[in-house]
Amino acid sequence: MAFAVKAMGRVPPWNPMTRMLYMDRLEACYDRTFTARVVESFPDAVVLDQTLFYPLGGGQEWDTGTLTTTDGRVVAVREVTKRGPVRHVVGPGHGLAIGDTVTGAIDWGRRYAHMRMHTAQHLVSGLAYEMFGGIRTVGNQIHATRSRIDFNPVEFTNPMLADLASAANDIIRSKQAITAATMTRDQVLAEQPPERTNMDLLPKSVTDLRVIRIGADVDLCPCAGTHVLNTGEIGDVAILGRRAKGQGTQRVEYTLAGLEPNDAPKDSA
Ligand SMILES: [Zn+2]
What we know:
The protein has 269 residues and is of the alpha+beta class. It has 2 domains: 2-106, Elongation Factor Tu (Ef-tu), domain 3; 111-256, Threonyl-trna Synthetase, Chain A, domain 2 (Threonyl-tRNA Synthetase, Chain A, domain 2).
């Protein structure tokens, strides 16, 4: 039964690929609903032919939301992963079958918080590299209310972190445009050292990179995450603290104006 439906579909069932709609252009990060077809169905998850849901990756948390069937049944998307195909985890008993058409809706409050937080991370990482002798970003975790960046090698003091937040907020308040483009490795390397963009950690097989640029030359970084279109949307960065993670690494935690850690963002969809 399932195979008959699969055979009629355009997406090969043995290797379902999902078109990531938010990657089409940066403006698409602001889209909240989409229509898709179920191309794989697992006991607790489905794969769609296209999606706006961001899967866990690059330090950024997944989007949550709903899938609504043509007969009006609403299924909650709890988690989205990308180990192989992009799986929308909907839990057991979801009843979604291959070939079904669904309307997806993402939780906009959570998504927009991630867009602001992730763009803030690029800004803070780039500024820290420039201000403190080329320190690298060796890890990051983007969440909706508080996020963190691991730097190495560095021994931050409170005045250094105050300077970092102040420099970030100057750029945020100056409302600089953010753009996405496709560039070759050589084009990226001509603009930024590999330690700043972590280009040296990307597999050599990746030749064309989706890059996110802040302003004309504030920052340039290969990234598949979701981002805002203007630094003014980020809101002021507030650094919450730092702690040593060993071997010269320090973890800096931050939040943004309006995203206080104990105040979960409202779904404004
Ligand atoms: Zn990024």
